[in-house]
Design goal:
With about 180 residues, this protein is mostly helical. It has helices spanning about 20-25, 30-35, 40-45, 55-75, 90-95, 110-130, 135-145, and strands at about 150-160, 165-175. It is built from seven helices and two strands. It has a two-stranded antiparallel sheet with strand order 1-2. The longest helix is centred in the last third of the chain and has 21 residues, at about 110-130. It starts with 18 loop residues before the first helix and ends in a 6-residue tail after the last strand.
Amino acid sequence: IYLNKGLLLDYEIRENISLHETINYYENNQFVDDFKVNPSHALFYFGFIKDTLGMAPSLLFIHKICSQFMRVLSENQTFDLMQNVPKLDVEISLELLHLVPFALGVEHVNINWIQAIWQELSDAFAIEFKAYKGTLESFLYAHNPEMRVMGRVFFHLVENKSADYPFAFLATYSSIKIVR
């Protein structure tokens, strides 16, 4: 349920998923438990979740905001992570605004509401990354191995069983934002 400031988790039973499966989805989902304790941090880590099967449209929208934050984070290598966390630009705001599903409290969702959620994600990221000992790339990889920082060249040394050339080098470039 979208509120004037923030959101409240609500459980919806989808027609194509049985009651048992829906209850199990939410009971086994760490997001729900984390949201009860610390909503901002739960939203931040929600962006790393890949499996959205069984989510209600209203929750899928929240996931879209969180995953967009992760996409912007993985694309941006030029900002100082401790000083400037990724800002929400107008284009992304409008794109997200067009994805709002019909849900309880939809009248509260506007660009300011989306920006407030984004700011919560930014604040949670700043806290989590400050406590992390490593690079942005290793942080993202630790939480979702399919995420990569954009624009990186990776060099791979591969053993070649051929006697003529015992090793081969391979260079790859990460140009895909997030592999799904």
